Amino acid sequence: MRRRTVTAGNLDELLQVTAPTAAAAPQEQVAAAPVAAPAAPREEGGLRTEFEFELPRGYVDEAGTVHRHGAMRLATARDELRPQIDLRVKENPAYLSVVLLSQVITRLGTITDVHAGVVERMYATDVAFLQDFYRRVNSEGHTRAAVTCPHCEGAFEVDLSGGRLGES
User: Fold this and answer.
1) HEC profile of the chain
2) Rounded distance between C-alpha atoms, residue 79 and residue 81, angstroms
3) Cα–Cα separations (whole angstroms), residue 46 to 24, 96, 146
4) Cβ contacts of 85 within 8 Å, gap of 6 or more
5) Is 31 in contact with 39 (CB distance < 8 Å)?
6) Bridge partners, residue 158, by sequence
7) pLDDT band at 5 (very low <50, low <70, confident <90, very high)
C-alpha cells in the first residue's frame, strides 16, 4: 500500500483525486430544486442520508434575509477527519464544530454554499441546535427527542427536523 503525506497545502488536491464522481450529481440536484418546495429526504440504498431542519432563530444574511429551513447530510469519516488538519482548528479546538457543520449542511434557506463563514455568523442558539441535531442524526440515526410536558408531566416524542413544537 502506498502512503501519502498530507499537508494543509495538498489536502484539496488529495480530496479531489479521491472524491467519488457520483457525489457531485446529487448535490447539483438539491441546488436546482425549487426553494418553495422542501426537498425529499435523500436516500441511498434504503438509508436516509439527508435530514431537513428548522433553526430556532434563523441565519440572517448580508441582505437581511432570514434563512431558517435547511438540510444536513450524514457525516462521513472524511468529514470527521478533515477538520483535524485544519489550521483554524489547530489554533482553536473550539472551531472544530464550525468546520464540521459547514461540511455537512447542504442547504440553508436559499444558500447552497454553506461555508465556515456562514456558520460563524449564526446565533449561538442555532449553532447549539445544529450541534445537537448533528449528534442525533449521526449517532442515533433519527431526529426524535423524548420530552416531558412541564404542566401534566406526560412523556412524548417530538421530531426536531421541522415544524414548531405543538404543530402537527
Assistant:
1) CCCCCCCCCCHHHHHHHHCCHHHHHHHHHHHHCCCCCCCCCCEECCEECEEEEEEEEEEECCCCCEEEEEEEECCCHHHHHHHHHCHHHHHCHHHHHHHHHHHHEEEECCECCCCHHHHHCCCHHHHHHHHHHHHHHHHHCCCEEEEECCCCCCEEEEECCCCCCCCC
2) 6
3) 20, 30, 25
4) 6, 8, 11
5) no
6) 145
7) very low
Cell 434557506 belongs to residue: 109
| This prediction's pTM | 0.61
Joined grid coordinates for residue 72: 444536513
Q: Which three cell numbers stand for residue 79?
A: 468529514
Q: What would the grid cell of residue 132 be?
A: 445537537
Whether 168 has a pLDDT exceeding 90, the answer reads: no
Instruction: Give the whole-angstrom CA distance, residue 32 versus residue 23.
Output: 15
